[in-house]
Design brief:
The chain is mainly beta. It has one domain: Porin (Beta Barrel). The protein is 10% helix and 62% strand. The protein contains one helix and 15 strands. The strands form two sheets. An eight-stranded antiparallel barrel has the order 1-4-5-8-9-11-12-15. It has a four-stranded antiparallel beta sheet with strand order 2-14-13-10, with no helix packed on it. A hairpin with a 6-residue loop joins strand 8 and strand 9. The two termini are 40 Å apart.
Length: 203
């Protein structure tokens, strides 16, 4: 092999090696504290009286999310938590509680991959499983399932090649019928806004 050919081979190997080292893992894991503020819109109970008298309590919860980058700009994020308990009031009076589990899968676009500050937008689908409903001493119930759209905006502040600080806001459509004695008495739009702050690790 000639000296020139050897030099070219060595140069190609060096470039390939540096590119392999520079490639980031496609996996990003975040842990967030998320504050949930329901919108709390409801139709008049039994079709009479004022609207928006049924209210679901605010709550701050832990959240784990897993993000996979298909390209530096496009990613998919799955957010997970465990069933969360919310109190429910009617005209300010406590009428019980329920639990919900709201996994959400979003497609994201990241505007500045590789930059110290990387904002992103996301749109996705939320599936909420409602369980352990205890309303009106057992006389009241909620639908078990809700499927709805989610919208997201956030930003990652990169500390180094692995660690980042994240701020995130989501709007999620969560709807349910309120049922008493087998009859639907109100339509409830929980539709919470979720404010998240957390830390991320890119593998």
């Amino acid at each position: 092999m000639t000296t020139m050919l050897k030099s070219v081979v060595v140069a190609l190997i060096a470039v390939a090696s540096s590119q392999a080292l520079a490639q980031e893992s496609p996996w990003l894991v975040r842990a967030r504290a998320v504050h949930i503020e329901p919108d709390n819109q409801s139709s008049p109970v039994g079709g009479v009286g004022a609207a928006d008298t049924i209210r679901v309590s605010n709550k701050t919860i832990p959240e784990l999310d897993i993000t996979y980058f298909f390209t530096p700009h496009f990613a998919a994020e799955l957010i997970l938590t465990y069933p969360q308990k919310h109190k429910v009031t009617l005209d300010g009076a406590d009428i019980g509680s329920f639990k919900h589990l709201p996994p959400t899968l979003s497609a994201q676009y990241h505007f500045a991959p590789g930059a110290t500050i990387n904002p992103y937008l996301g749109v996705g689908l939320n599936y909420t499983r409602i369980s352990s409903v205890k309303l009106l001493g057992g006389a009241g119930d909620l639908e078990n399932d809700s499927v709805g759209l989610s919208l997201q905006a956030g930003v990652d502040f990169h500390l180094d090649e692995h660690w980042s600080i994240n701020a995130d806001i989501k709007r999620v459509n969560i709807r349910s019928d309120v049922i008493v004695g087998g009859a639907t008495v109100s339509h409830l739009k929980v539709d919470p806004v979720l404010f998240g702050l957390g830390v991320g690790y890119r593998f």
